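Need residues for this backbone.
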């Protein structure tokens, strides 16, 4: 267990000095905040598991150091709603999270009691947690859909509250629901959204992009496999001169969820957003016509796809679409680009992807990566 260098708060009422928490704690705290807002299953929160193991001393639950940790963890999760009312996951999730957290501390207390026979009153050291649990459990809460919050902070309201992206999803994160994988948000979509939003503070696509695309020059976007719509919301907010965003998917139910989430985040639909059912194999002509029309009408475009490379049999038709997009853009001297965000589940599938990219004469380079995935920027080899 790692020891802290300072404390905040003291149950006895004597003065205490708040000191900086270790860098590892701060990094895990940031990760915990993200997992909490995304309503991850508490028992599967890696950051919480490490924080409890490394920074909670079961033999000193009343110590100033442990109290500081407990208070900071409260502020990083449940307490977020006190600061910004928009940072509140579903009520039932919050209840579940608090109960799980209390149970973990109770387990620590029990383990310590078996050694020194001293039982700490958990209600005393977790007073804020118990109070919030009481409020949530007794409040008259109307039935609410399951949703996750992504604190990518693209805009603020009139009260200067930073508004996260809110995405309605299938509760529980089932891999396949209603015959599609698109009713939950996948990691590659989150990572690509984060990377695109970095453009907000930059004049060009950052981090190794070979084309140096100015964000003002992107006039339209076509997304393959739009899923729940996180990338659509992030994309529309990222590019200020965007004239059209076309969200496509092979599933009608997924497109409806995407449409619903667009309305949740923007209040209504407008002429700049379009939803299109699209099968990569049977709807090739429809795809090509969309690309030609948007290129002629708007100019430079951007093709997006996140977590759509999971079946090797779909790679050839997928890259046929990418090649067609690049051909049309190049022939009209607009030179758009394509971004594919991939989570690596099978190295063999990724190898096939690279091979077919070469066969289609598509140059590709990694412009962003994370622990188990990457974003490829694709352009035509002239």
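Answer:
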């Amino acid at each position: 267990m790692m020891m802290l260098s300072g404390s905040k708060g003291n149950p006895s009422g004597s003065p205490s000095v708040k000191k900086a928490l270790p860098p590892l704690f701060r990094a895990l705290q940031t990760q915990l905040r993200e997992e909490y807002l995304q309503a991850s299953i508490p028992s599967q929160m890696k950051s919480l598991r490490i924080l409890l193991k490394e920074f909670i001393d079961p033999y000193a639950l009343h110590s100033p150091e442990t109290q500081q940790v407990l208070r900071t963890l409260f502020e990083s999760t449940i307490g977020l709603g006190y600061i910004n009312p928009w940072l509140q996951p579903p009520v039932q999730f919050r209840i579940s999270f608090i109960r799980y957290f209390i149970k973990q501390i109770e387990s620590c207390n029990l383990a310590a009691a078996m050694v020194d026979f001293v039982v700490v009153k958990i209600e005393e050291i977790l007073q804020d947690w118990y109070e919030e649990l009481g409020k949530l459990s007794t409040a008259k809460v109307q039935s609410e859909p399951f949703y996750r919050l992504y604190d990518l902070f693209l805009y603020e309201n009139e009260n200067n509250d930073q508004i996260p992206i809110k995405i309605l999803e299938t509760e529980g994160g089932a891999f396949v629901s209603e015959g599609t994988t698109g009713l939950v948000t996948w990691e590659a979509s989150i990572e690509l959204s984060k990377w695109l939003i970095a453009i907000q503070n930059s004049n060009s696509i950052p981090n190794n992009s070979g084309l140096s695309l100015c964000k003002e020059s992107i006039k339209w976007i076509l997304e393959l496999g739009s899923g729940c719509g996180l990338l659509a919301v992030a994309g529309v907010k990222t590019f200020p001169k965007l004239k059209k965003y076309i969200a496509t998917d092979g599933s009608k139910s997924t497109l409806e969820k995407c449409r619903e989430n667009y309305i949740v985040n923007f209040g209504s639909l407008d002429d700049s957003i379009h939803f299109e059912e699209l099968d990569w194999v049977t709807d090739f002509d429809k795809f090509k016509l969309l690309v030609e029309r948007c290129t002629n009408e708007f100019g430079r475009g951007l093709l997006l796809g996140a977590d759509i490379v999971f079946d090797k049999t779909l790679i050839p038709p997928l890259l046929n679409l990418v090649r067609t997009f690049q051909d049309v853009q190049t022939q009209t001297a607009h030179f758009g680009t394509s971004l594919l965000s991939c989570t690596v589940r099978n190295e063999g599938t990724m190898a096939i992807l690279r091979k077919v990219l070469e066969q289609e004469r598509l140059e590709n380079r990694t412009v962003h990566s994370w622990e188990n995935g990457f974003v490829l920027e694709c352009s035509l080899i002239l």
